[in-house]
Structure formats: C-alpha cells, structure tokens
Amino acid sequence: MKESRLRRVKPTILKIGGSVITDKSKELQVRMQTINRLAEEIHKASTKNLIIVHGGGSFGHPLAQRYSIVEGFKEDKQKTGFSETHHVMTVLNGLFMDALIWHNIPAVSITPSSCIVTKNGRIQCFEDAPLKILLKMAFLPVLYGDAVLDSKLGFTIISGDQLVSILAIKFNAERIIIGVDVDGLYDEDPKAEKSAKMFKYLTLEKLKKLHSKLDKPTTYDVTGGMFGKVAELLPVIEHGIPVTIVNATKPNYIYKALEGRKVKSTLIGKE
Length: 271
Ligand code: IP8
Fold this sequence. Notes:
The chain is α/β, with parallel strands linked by helices.
C-alpha cells in the first residue's frame, strides 16, 4: 500500500447511543429515520479517520437481561439467549450499516464477538489487525456493544462505551464524541429531575466527584447507563483525550460536533 494513501490523522471516535437509534420503550424498535439522518450528517461531515461504535438499546439490552448474559454462563438455556442477544445486535448493526452505505460511506462492520475475548467482563484480547488496515485504507470501521466470550465467565456483554475507551487509548484518539438522547452530562437524571443541571465543561477531578454521586445502573441497562458510561470515560480523560457528550436526537448536533463547531454539549477535559 502506498504511504501517501495512509492516513496520518489521529482518529475521532463517535459513539451513538442505543437510546438514540432505538425506542427503548418497545423491544426491537429501531428508529430508522434517526439512523438515516445520522448517516447523512456523518456523510456531510466526512471526518477523516473516524471510528463509529453504537449501543444496543431495545435490541441488545432486554435480551441480555432476560437471559442474565452479563453474569456469565450458569445454565444451558442461557446459550440460546447468548445467540439471540448477539444475533439481534447484528440485526441492529445491519440496519445502521445499510444507512451508512446507502449514503455512500465506505463503512465496514467489525463484529466484536469475533475479535474480542474478555476476562471477567474486561477486554483481555482484541485482534485489531483488520481494524488497522481499514483505518489505513480510509474505510469507516463500525463496532457495537455485543455479547462476547469471556475466559472466566464463559460469556458476557461488553458495552459500546468499553469499546470506545479501549479504541481511544489503543489508537491515541484525537477526541471522542458521544451521542446520547439528552443535551449533555447532568448532575442528576434530567429525565427524572426537572431541576437537573447540565455541565458545559467538566474536568477529570469534577467528573470523578460526579461519578460517585450518579445513580447506579437501572434494571433496563445491563451495562450501567450513565454511571457505566462515566466509569469508562475516566481512563480516556486521564489519557488527555477530550470527550464531548452531545444530543444525537437533535438534527445537526452530531454534524456540528464532528465539524468541531459550537453546539450545546458537555465537554470533558483533563484539566
Ligand atoms: O448499549 C450493550 O452496549 P451499550 C450491548 O453500548 C448489549 O451498553 C448486547 C446489550
């Protein structure tokens, strides 16, 4: 491969939350219009060296919960549950890929369960050779939270946020953009508390304090909701990689964030 063709820009990691691309109130409900709009915005921004990770929403989470996949293998009937959870994630990913490719984006899906093994829920090995070549050739790799094999538990779930964190550190990302269904990071759950205050800027120290105050996982979100998200973000911020949390349900917010333009969001930096 010619050197001139290789991309030298540090990657941008974009996470699209499951609550953005699916309707969490109904199992297996995709928001195809939103996915198409996001594909259009991603195409319009044409960000160099982009990696996308999406969440599970009403595809992965209800099944993972029904079959207690996070906790690992305990009984045979969980096995079809593992297969189903992984399968519905490939279905959601397929719909997401459809939209990207239909918008002329050279996106290629990387199936986490085929290249990752975890140990007690944390990534232990990650075969990243295909991902590296995709980046070199200026493809857009797309990964997602998935049901994966685990060297201690048999199997478990990895969140898209854990993937974002490991990818950002492995590839020394320039920045991380996290698209969620609220305007940023708040001191309380903005969906439950009207008085919740949104942060425009947070330092690592303030994020650590906030993390200790945030509510622990809800029953719906097997990977820990906002609490889990912040826990995964701490090491990347420590690494000096800035994180922007932005509302991906609002038109052009992801586009503006990708372009580095001013948009309502929470920016988290080391200092
Ligand atoms: O929505 C979880 O990914 P997340 C994926 O990023 C599954 O936490 C399979 C529940």
